[in-house]
Amino acid sequence: MLETFDNQYPDRRYSIEIVCPEFTSVCPKTGQPDFGTLTITYVPAGKCVELKSLKLYLQQYRNLGIYYEHATNRILDDLVAALEPRQMSLRAAFSARGGITTTVTASYETSPKT
Amino acid sequence: MLETFDNQYPDRRYSIEIVCPEFTSVCPKTGQPDFGTLTITYVPAGKCVELKSLKLYLQQYRNLGIYYEHATNRILDDLVAALEPRQMSLRAAFSARGGITTTVTASYETSPKT
Amino acid sequence: MLETFDNQYPDRRYSIEIVCPEFTSVCPKTGQPDFGTLTITYVPAGKCVELKSLKLYLQQYRNLGIYYEHATNRILDDLVAALEPRQMSLRAAFSARGGITTTVTASYETSPKT
Amino acid sequence: MLETFDNQYPDRRYSIEIVCPEFTSVCPKTGQPDFGTLTITYVPAGKCVELKSLKLYLQQYRNLGIYYEHATNRILDDLVAALEPRQMSLRAAFSARGGITTTVTASYETSPKT
Amino acid sequence: MLETFDNQYPDRRYSIEIVCPEFTSVCPKTGQPDFGTLTITYVPAGKCVELKSLKLYLQQYRNLGIYYEHATNRILDDLVAALEPRQMSLRAAFSARGGITTTVTASYETSPKT
Amino acid sequence: MLETFDNQYPDRRYSIEIVCPEFTSVCPKTGQPDFGTLTITYVPAGKCVELKSLKLYLQQYRNLGIYYEHATNRILDDLVAALEPRQMSLRAAFSARGGITTTVTASYETSPKT
Amino acid sequence: MLETFDNQYPDRRYSIEIVCPEFTSVCPKTGQPDFGTLTITYVPAGKCVELKSLKLYLQQYRNLGIYYEHATNRILDDLVAALEPRQMSLRAAFSARGGITTTVTASYETSPKT
Amino acid sequence: MLETFDNQYPDRRYSIEIVCPEFTSVCPKTGQPDFGTLTITYVPAGKCVELKSLKLYLQQYRNLGIYYEHATNRILDDLVAALEPRQMSLRAAFSARGGITTTVTASYETSPKT
Amino acid sequence: MLETFDNQYPDRRYSIEIVCPEFTSVCPKTGQPDFGTLTITYVPAGKCVELKSLKLYLQQYRNLGIYYEHATNRILDDLVAALEPRQMSLRAAFSARGGITTTVTASYETSPKT
Amino acid sequence: MLETFDNQYPDRRYSIEIVCPEFTSVCPKTGQPDFGTLTITYVPAGKCVELKSLKLYLQQYRNLGIYYEHATNRILDDLVAALEPRQMSLRAAFSARGGITTTVTASYETSPKT
Prior knowledge:
The structure is a homodecamer. With about 110 residues, the first copy, chain A, is α+β, with helices and mostly antiparallel strands. Chain A has 2 helices and 6 strands. In chain A, the strands form 2 sheets. Chain A has a 4-stranded antiparallel sheet, with helices on one face. A two-stranded antiparallel sheet of chain A has the order 1-4. Strand 6 of chain E pairs antiparallel with strand 2 of chain F, so a sheet runs across the interface.
């Protein structure tokens, strides 16, 4: 469902940061909604993500029961599969529950940093 | 008392940050309550900490007399024992006493960073 | 238990604001601790509150099960009884529970404002 | 569905402010989710709102298509019907769409302010 | 060009605030672009402004040469003509030129405030 | 030296706020430069101040020895003489000297506020 | 010890605000230093306070044992005696002790506000 | 169209950062204006960019339809061609669309960093 | 005069940060008081500093004439002598004098960082 | 004109940061004043800069026409000549002109960092 468009500067190692402060899913344990801010940062290879399709992709989690840690890793995996980037990281900062705030950060890269 | 759940992405080196701004214990010298914010950051191996049990674990310090430095190190040791993480750090920022603010930071790792 | 000292400027209508960001009590429903910031503002008549005794008075709520609304009103009543001020207000801002934050504000005065 | 509990201080004119930063509904025109922060302020008469039921009540809007202006007024009407407060105001600040941010504020009171 | 929709709560005196941080016009003297943030606040009578049409209306100023003071008053006049509100104010905060920042605030109301 | 242009909306009581954070003069006692931020707010009658001429007018103080209080009142008098506004206030916030910060606020109006 | 200079604009009702963030005195009970920020606001009649002498006057409290409430009122009385202003207020915000912050505000005026 | 002036310190490796918060272009897909802040950082070799010409150069994008990623890379290429710097980076932070914010960062350098 | 207590975790390389925003000394040149914030960060070996004794130690500077640079280095030397830490740094940020702010940072370590 | 005093800790590699937010010079092109904040950071060898003489030195630029880039490099050269430091950097952040803000950063060191 994630759409892409061609990166017109494939030879330059540059980065794109996308902040989505309106992510929401459902806690699989309590059935209560969770809210969070996703920050996606990637170095494109041949493809860039189309923002409208990203927005619709993230809305699929709106009524889905899933833990923070799994949501973070699954979104990263889906984006990596669709974009085949040189490098990507995903930071997911969830709002407080029971006075405790959780942020999960995962990353992917094809080769050691240079 | 700390409960865990299985990390479903054990092969990925990713991090989890948990902020607990409602930590309180008692000063062993004066008997007065202390307040602080704990920031736990770890790279899970096989296990992740369950947040509700973490909250209950930290509440055990509510009426306990203990120094800042010892509380910080003891909580780190307990979390390391329960989670056996690849890496963990604990930052404990206590509120001012006598116009002086103290922050204690300790960390654990199984091997040198890569 | 609240101690007072004599107001040396009883003829001047001046105000004293006291902020206590380390208030904690227990939720009577869930048994979980609550945290809040109390802001007491008063115009003294003959007496001022002694700060050390105020601190010890507030610590009595540390392990007490009580609702936000009742704690706020009870503390106001106790302070009014001890200080007999010209005017007093109490603002109690509690930290978020379930993504919802509550602030209760109550006030007392002996006569209409001038 | 909104539950209440008895106000134990019905003779005192005091106020309760409740902030809900996790409100979300659906735009009836585009089908896209909207996000906002609700701030409810009221002076209770005989009843106070129970927070858990308020949270569940607001979750009913999660998948409902409704305009900002109507959601704000409807929630105010429902809360007034359930609580019969002396006074109530509702401020709903919605996040930006097309670079434009909207905040709707409505209020109710039984008699002129004193 | 400004479109409206019916206010479903015409009997309640409530307010709508709309913030547009992406306003731009052209300085008639220098030909250089100006940038500003418009804050529209109004109490609707029978009609509310449709946001998409407001956005398109404001884009008409993008390549128009006009002074700050005149733009502010003209936009207010156009909105009042289209909405016939009970009350409306417009605050236009322009970004600095030559180290000097200007904010123009104008308002309209059908009757004295109550 | 202050230039003006015609107010095209003389029948509307609206306000213009101008912030000048780059005001500098010289302390007549020590010969050291002083720095401050001027905030001019006025309700125009027939004339508005032209910003470029205001900037040049204020630069006349750059090498002038004058006390804070006198500079504030003199600038207000000069602006009132040039603009004949319905109302004007001038707030001059000077940067700290010897750990002490001073802000002088003066205002003018032709008739009581309505 | 407080020196003054002539107000050159005695017919205009304007205000002067002076912020002194470096006030320090000694707690008469514990012998420990206290720290605070004083904000003096006054409408001058015939005299303005000379800032250097104000600074030296406040330094007299550096090693003096005195309670917050008394220091605030005494400084106000001394300034009123020296300046004979139309109106004056003093806000003294002291830094936290035992997690509790106190602000004392007192004011003087020769006649009701207009 | 980009003008330059000679760098008088060509032997020193120093940096120049230029922030342009008033960049605007048009979305090629929707025809709607986009807004962003450009941050240009470079280490000059023989030439520095003249700011007025930079401002006029950026205004050429005001009515141009172009994607974020392409605008960022094209501006970087044009600046590199005109200035032949030792090093240059361009960070373009665009304002939110559909609740999603994008920042593109690209850089150029003649040789590995030292 | 600086007292210490035993570090119960001598084998762990952890850090303690202590912030003292209420440091004051006297300028040896002008006799005027100076104010600053000290930030002490250290990795303990066998001993930790007792906070009350640190507070009393710093109060010895209250009426002492000493330059910023010397005070910073002397305090560092005294703390190193008393604690024999693995590593220590001291950052002293002094408040503005004549519009100029100074921060002195010095550090000590027994061996190169690992 | 820059005066120095002896560094009493010449064997310790420590740093001194001096922030001067009140720098002003004149644009050589337009004759208009420019304003900026200078941040000087250095590791002293045998000499430290005396602050009063630094202040007077910087005032020499008050009525001097000079470009940002040249002023920054010239001040750095003058300070290096007077202090012969181990290391020095100068960051000059100028206020916005035409909506564009410029910051120039230059540095000097006698040998590679350790």
